[in-house]
Amino acid sequence: MRTSRDEGPQGATMDPVEALLPEHRRICLACGGAVGRARGGRPGRLRGVCPWCGAAFDLTPHLAVDDVLTGRRGGRWRVAGPLARGGHSWLHAATDERTGRSGVLSRTRGPAGPEAGDVALDEPEVLLALDHPGLVRVRDVVDGPGAQRHLVLDRVHGTGCGEAAGLCLLDVARVALGVLPALAHLHGLGLLHADLTPDHLVVTPDPAVVLLDLGSVRRVVDRTSPVWTTEGYTAPEIVPGGAGPSPASDVFALGRVLSVLAVGSRTGPGGRGAVTGPWRAPRLPDHKGLARLVATTTDPDPARRPDLGALAAALREVLADGAAPPEDPGHRRRDDAPAPHRLRRRPACGGADARGATIT
After folding, report:
1. What is the spatial distance between Cα 70 and Cα 293, in angstroms, rounded to a whole number?
2. pLDDT digits (tens, 9 = 90+) for 53-81
3. CA 92 to each of CA 42, 68, 102, 300, 341: distance values in angstroms, whole numbers, following the listed order
């Protein structure tokens, strides 16, 4: 990632926003270059001109506290403030004045155009109808100022996998197994998630794995609309002239999630470290079964990747092998293994030490 001391004109800043979006996470959406960096003892700016490509950037929240947005289902959503910065815009906390329900406003269309896939833009009723415990619930669709559009999502409390890279290998397998029912539900409806990353997975205290950010959802039969995906998790067939997205490309993305969580590095702008090559598997010498699984799920040929049923069986086998290794007869049995929401750092999982994992 590039850095520079040359920044644009002074822009408005807000201390809470700066806390939610520290300088190392400020990236130009046009070119991926670093923006908003400190210079000469002055804090970095949230508005300006990218010194790398010349594009204007504006990282300030697009909604103001106490803005009220009316939903298609009759909700009156009062903005409480920014919650987090997503890929293209801010997520805002809001409350329905009618019911007191809390929600999260996720923008799908901004002043510059779409920020989500065609289903979120043109068929939001498809997302409103989704009802599965492993998928964040979409409660409403609201239009904001300047032709902006937002989905209103349930607020999910738990541990974000995007901040938990470097888990012990058994917890990595549990997270992957936990998200499979949600993916299977989408695939059964003829839908793809299309943007599966660690940042879009939360492990709740129940415990359960919840898949977030449904703005990327698309129909399996869609071969023409833009694909909203994340670099490093994109299957090699999703290129001009390629086969395009399919259930197999969601499997590929999940394999990349396995790889990133196991190795403890990130890919994409602002990531911690890097995963070299978008479909390379980690070498995990202490758990050959998981290493083989990562290799098969990220196979460049989508026809050779396992389907969700075979993937679930393989993950259960990994957990069974790791739960009671013969050299440790006192180790926990599979049925009383620690809950996945405990997301412990490696190598604190008996029999599955991920130290020394490398990229090949």
Report:
1. 46
2. 999 999 999 999 999 999 999 999 999 99
3. 27, 12, 11, 38, 25
pTM: 0.79
Residue 133 contacts residue 148 (beta carbons within 8 Å): no
Identify whether the C-beta of residue 284 lies closer than 8 Å to the C-beta of residue 290: yes
Q: Which backbone phi and psi does 353 adopt, to 5 degrees?
A: -90, 120
The residues near 91 (Cβ < 8 Å, ≥ 6 apart) are 82, 83, 84, 85, 104, 105, 106
What pLDDT does residue 284 have? 58
Task: Indicate the pLDDT class of residue 329, thresholds 50, 70 and 90.
Answer: very low
* Pick among 3.40.190.10, 1.10.510.10, 3.40.50.720, 1.10.10.10: CATH of 159-359: 1.10.510.10
Q: Which residues contact 243 (CB under 8 A, 6 or more apart)?
A: 237, 302
In the CATH scheme, what architecture does the domain 68-153 have?
2-Layer Sandwich (3.30)
Beta bridge partners of 104: 93, 153
Only one residue has tokens 């929600």, namely 103
**What confidence tens digit (pLDDT) does each residue in 258-315 have?**
988 887 644 433 333 344 344 455 555 556 788 889 999 999 999 999 999 999 999 9
Give the tokens for residue 303. 């026809």
